[in-house]
């Protein structure tokens, strides 16, 4: 029988060389299904990497899923690539690869497909990432928004459960419908960026998107690639950055996915000590294989290039870097140096960071979700670092939540859980996360982690947010936490937006909104957020009163704010040491009744020349219960006049 596939290629010899060297970073321009024309006939070019296959054919709804009709040609150069042109096919055609290997025929979806079906068959679709973008102004200027010297406040969200259709709560909203609701909400709330939990195609809803099969496909749960592009475009037009969760750590064992793709262990190491993830029952990428590195770095590049993403938050970096991650003795093998570091994974992450920053410069940012103290994660590769732009501050998150669960009498014994982060806050460029991981699996919602009755729970959470937003580092808050979602996050349903009918929830939302605007509008809170000039303790050791006092400082000498936290349910007057020639005014009080607080007013009611906290003067401040107070430094007029007179003399 005559083969219906014609010879065709998009690969040059240089492409093949780069692919085999692990240095081809735009494989999506070559692999997959591409609409092309051959000798005046329109059709689709297919190419797939399957070096151990005996035969590869394209099956689909155009040939009744018959693996005899459309057999691809193996390249002659030992690359393991199969390719060919099929006339008459168009966008929307369903297809898979039938891969004959070791006497079996495996039906595999296309690793480079741009769209997948949402069903058990989960076939790939011939698709396109063509879109008429209108976000040029954003792209040109976004380096300012992604700068470490700019405010970065991220709203982390899961597209399937942020908001559902009122009339059909079982149905997802389309990306375009989400845009209509999300864009004005983010703008009003004052977040600078939104972070989407994985938008890449995944088969299993309870994985939340972290077990990906279609690495180059926007999940069709919420619409087409162009619908997702519309959402990102709308966010950009409204000055909101988009960070995507990216998962180069592992993939599921679904029959149509990457696992044993051509009958061999192609994308994963064969040794289960390296290739199988015991916690997630998934498979780990083979970071030592050049073609796999090309696949993964091309995937990162694809989302930054074709979808205009402004950053990638890399999931599960700890599991990638540690050979003994979640393994008992005897279940892992040390590296050639005898340590537990996965040297190949480290090299891969360095190459990934080098590649994307070389391509996009400071217009994008990479963020590591990493919970160990792995060194130099956000230091440049040329200085021996891993090259990330930022790292999640997981230690801060756990210490803080542990503290706020404590009984009030016991807080004095745990006082330094809140000061400890200042010992290491400049070791890396940190993002402070209160993420989705903290509000699932029986851990309780954020509001129910707080100590006390309902009023105290909300007061504690308001104080925690003041502490978070006024500390150095970027911020990340998971959806629902901004208004005190009471139930744990459930990926199957919408957030409980009706809670905003209750003043205490509305008040919390108002507080987060005002904190975002304070953080964004006052340079002292972000200019020096990643260097030691921006933070100073005034009182870190008042264990008896559970009070903390610190300064945040901008580049100008008089750009200074003071933050005072009272983490007991008592109201009392408090003496604070200040420098001569300064004068302070309360500009923010988390106990304000518009935030659901008790309305105890905080103001400086006395100033004295008494030395206090190793400073020559002191002020007296009324501290509301369970509160965060922010004061702004103003130059004392008398002091200024004296200085002018002295200068004239």
Automatic annotation (TrEMBL):
EC number: 2.4.1.18
GO CC term (a single one): cytosol
InterPro entries: A-amylase/branching_C (IPR006048), Branching_enzy (IPR037439), GH (IPR017853), GH13_cat_dom (IPR006047), GlgB (IPR006407), GlgB_N_E_set_prok (IPR044143), Glyco_hydro_13_N (IPR004193), Glyco_hydro_b (IPR013780)
SMART domains, per database record: Aamy
Sorted UniProt keywords: Carbohydrate metabolism, Glycogen biosynthesis, Glycogen metabolism, Glycosyltransferase, Transferase
The organism's place on the tree of life at top rank: Bacteria
Single GO MF descriptor: hydrolase activity, hydrolyzing O-glycosyl compounds
Entry annotated with the keyword Ion transport: no
Active site: 315 (nucleophile), 369 (proton donor)
Pathway noted in the entry: Glycan biosynthesis; glycogen biosynthesis
Chemical reaction(s) catalysed: Transfers a segment of a (1->4)-alpha-D-glucan chain to a primary hydroxy group in a similar glucan chain
Gene Ontology biological process: glycogen biosynthetic process
SUPFAM superfamilies per UniProt: (Trans)glycosidases, E set domains, Glycosyl hydrolase domain
Broad enzyme group: transferase
Glycosyl hydrolase family 13 catalytic domain: residues covered: 156-498
Function: Catalyzes the formation of the alpha-1,6-glucosidic linkages in glycogen by scission of a 1,4-alpha-linked oligosaccharide from growing alpha-1,4-glucan chains and the subsequent attachment of the oligosaccharide to the alpha-1,6 position.
UniProt subunit comment: Monomer.
Family: Belongs to the glycosyl hydrolase 13 family. GlgB subfamily.
HAMAP family: GlgB (MF_00685)
The name this protein goes by in its record: 1,4-alpha-glucan branching enzyme GlgB
Organism: Chryseobacterium aquaticum
């Amino acid at each position: 029988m005559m083969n219906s596939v014609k010879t065709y290629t998009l690969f040059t010899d240089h492409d093949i060389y780069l692919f085999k060297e692990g240095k081809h970073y735009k494989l999506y321009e070559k692999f997959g299904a591409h609409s092309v024309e051959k000798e005046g006939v329109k059709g689709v070019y297919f190419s797939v990497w399957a070096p151990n296959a005996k035969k590869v054919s394209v099956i689909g709804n155009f040939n009744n899923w018959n693996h005899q009709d459309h057999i691809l040609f193996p390249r002659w150069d030992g690359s393991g690539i199969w390719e060919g042109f099929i006339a008459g096919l168009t966008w929307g055609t369903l297809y898979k690869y039938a891969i004959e290997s070791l006497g079996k025929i495996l039906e595999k979806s296309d690793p480079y497909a741009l769209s997948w079906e949402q069903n058990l068959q989960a076939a790939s679709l011939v698709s396109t990432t063509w879109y008429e973008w209108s976000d040029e102004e954003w792209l040109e200027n976004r380096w300012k928004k992604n700068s470490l010297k700019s405010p970065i406040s991220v709203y982390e969200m899961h597209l399937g459960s942020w908001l559902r259709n009122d009339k059909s709560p079982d149905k997802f909203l389309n990306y375009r419908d989400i845009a209509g609701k999300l864009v004005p909400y983010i703008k009003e709330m004052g977040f600078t960026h939104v972070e989407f939990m994985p938008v890449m195609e995944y088969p299993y809803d309870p994985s939340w998107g972290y077990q990906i099969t279609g690495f180059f496909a926007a999940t069709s749960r919420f619409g087409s690639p162009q619908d997702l592009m519309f959402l990102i475009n709308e966010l950009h037009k409204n000055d909101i950055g988009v960070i995507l969760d990216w998962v180069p750590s592992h993939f599921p064992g679904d029959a149509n996915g990457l696992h044993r793709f051509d009958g061999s262990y192609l994308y994963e190491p064969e040794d289960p000590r390296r290739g199988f993830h015991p916690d997630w029952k998934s498979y780990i990428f083979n970071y030592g294989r050049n073609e796999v590195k090309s696949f993964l770095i091309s995937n990162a590049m694809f989302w930054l290039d074709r979808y205009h993403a402004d950053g990638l938050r890399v999931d599960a970096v700890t599991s990638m870097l540690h050979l003994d991650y979640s393994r008992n003795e005897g279940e892992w093998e040390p590296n050639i140096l005898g340590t537990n570091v996965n040297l190949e994974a480290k090299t891969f992450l360095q190459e990934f960071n080098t590649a994307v920053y070389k391509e996009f410069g400071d217009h994008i940012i990479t963020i590591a979700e990493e919970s160990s103290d792995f060194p130099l994660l956000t230091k440049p590769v040329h200085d021996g670092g891993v090259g990330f732009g930022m790292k999640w501050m997981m230690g801060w998150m756990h210490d803080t939540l542990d503290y706020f669960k404590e009984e009030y009498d016991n807080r004095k014994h745990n006082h330094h859980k809140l000061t400890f982060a200042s010992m290491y806050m400049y070791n890396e460029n940190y993002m402070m996360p209160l993420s989705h991981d903290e509000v699932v699996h029986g851990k309780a919602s954020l509001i129910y982690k707080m100590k006390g009755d309902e009023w105290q729970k909300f007061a504690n959470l308001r104080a925690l947010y003041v502490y978070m937003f006024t500390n150095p580092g970027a911020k990340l808050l998971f959806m629902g936490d901004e208004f005190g979602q009471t139930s744990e996050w459930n990926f199957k349903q919408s957030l409980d937006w009706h809670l905003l009918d209750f003043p205490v929830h509305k008040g919390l939302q108002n507080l987060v909104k005002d904190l975002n605007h304070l953080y964004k509008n006052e340079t002292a809170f972000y200019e020096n957020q990643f260097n030691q000039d921006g933070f100073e303790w005034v009182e870190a050791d008042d264990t008896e009163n559970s009070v903390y006092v610190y300064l945040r400082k901008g580049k100008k000498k008089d750009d200074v704010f003071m933050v005072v936290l009272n983490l007991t349910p008592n109201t009392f007057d408090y003496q604070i040491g200040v420098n001569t020639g300064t004068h302070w005014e309360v500009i923010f009080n988390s106990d304000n009744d518009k935030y659901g607080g008790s309305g105890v007013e905080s103001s400086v009611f006395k100033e004295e020349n008494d030395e206090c906290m190793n400073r020559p003067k002191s002020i007296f401040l009324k501290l509301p219960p369970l509160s965060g107070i922010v004061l702004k430094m103003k130059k004392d007029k008398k002091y200024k006049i004296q200085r002018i007179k002295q200068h004239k003399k």
